[in-house]
Amino acid sequence: MNEANLTKEENKRVEILLNKYTKCISLNDNDVGKTSTIKHNIELINDVAIKQPIRRVNGELAERSEKTLEQDHTDGIIRPSNLPWSSCIVPIVKKCGGLRLAVDYRVLNSLTVKDSFPLPNLNDAVYNLHGSKYFSTLDLTHRYYNVLMDEQSIPLTAFSTSRSHWEFVRMPFGLCNAGATFQRLMNLVLRCFSWSECICYIDDALILGATFDEHFKNLNKVKFLGYEVSQKGIMPDKKNIEGITNFPIPKTVKQVCSFIGIVNFCRLHIPNCATIHKPLSELTGKAKTLIWNSEAENAFNQLKKLFTSPQLLAYPDYKSSEPLKIHVDSSLTGAGPILSQKQGGKIRPIAFISTSWGISEQDYASTARELAGLRWAVKKLDPFLRGRKFVMHTDNQPLIYLSNTKCTVFQVGWQEP
């Protein structure tokens, strides 16, 4: 709670609220909640027991692992197992020096029937914040451990160390369907709230409000789903930006893919991003060996420079009389449409989208490429535009006359959805 932004009366109200719900507040890292609303079940494709050999761990790490497991046993997270199922445990030392124990469930996951429960769209969640002034996030202590395992599935979670054999009573991290189960739980728990009150993506929950009476926590800016969201708009999380600007020159194809992955997560904030990183994308084809070239290096450096000052994006205001506008400018290499809206007397960008042309599109005449860019933009921005009036801008004059002239079959086909 940022007390500097609250009056004494508001602070008192927050204090009363917290005291009212003390049972919901975790007092330490071992104070984990428990729900009976839903249980996690593992359905197997075939009933074949997994018996992986125990991985060797050095003495000190093994000792620390056993102490951690004993604490988890005390906390009711795991229990001793006497069944043959066994996956490998992987001790991970944190940067702070602490220890996190993970279980390698890749073999179990390959034999598990996948849960296709739908997850919310990330962009829909972030862009739904228009009109909100107060933001706060909820952090669940060991979120997955709040969910009980179905008794029939508990033996499947078993894992071993050189000294002990355990199984999970609570839902562990690493199971392929854990995210779907947790999203299902949160949908049930928060079903009475609209997205104008609370948004949840798996374990990331954001409570919002336009006034303090709707929302007790006055936070000017919070992190949500990899973004910094505030009343002003949306910015990429600083950690993601630093991940791009501090990225070393790639030495392998895998490192190029990693860089492109971070860039693509934040690409809505950079104009013509796809066109710029095309030389990098061309290095990630079938070739296993990276052949770095000057075009790739220029693209790499240009992206790092652009991400030092990413664009602040606005939330679309669907209640405003101002229409959404699409500005499209197609070039020989690609198109970079911009979705914007006039808000507070200023034109504010909502999203920068982009695509690079293939060989066939590059052979189009300039007017055809512009039309292709318009069509692509409308399809890409469909979640923003469907059911609403919008304005399209282009600097290609011949396109203006399409509505007053007889179009070719080629052009008519492109104007259809």
Automatic annotation (TrEMBL):
Specify the domain of life of the species encoding this protein.
Eukaryota
- Which InterPro entries does the protein's record reference? DNA/RNA_pol_sf, Rev_trsase/Diguanyl_cyclase, RT_dom, RT_RNaseH_2, Viral_Replic_Matur_Polypro
Residues in Reverse transcriptase domain copies: 1-264
Q: Which PROSITE patterns match?
A: RT_POL (PS50878)
Q: Which CDD domains match?
A: RT_LTR (cd01647)
Q: Name one Pfam family in it.
A: RVT_1
Q: Which PANTHER family match?
A: POL PROTEIN, RIBONUCLEASE H
**Name recorded for this polypeptide:** Reverse transcriptase domain-containing protein
Species, as recorded? Rotaria magnacalcarata
Taxon lineage: Eukaryota, Metazoa, Spiralia, Gnathifera, Rotifera
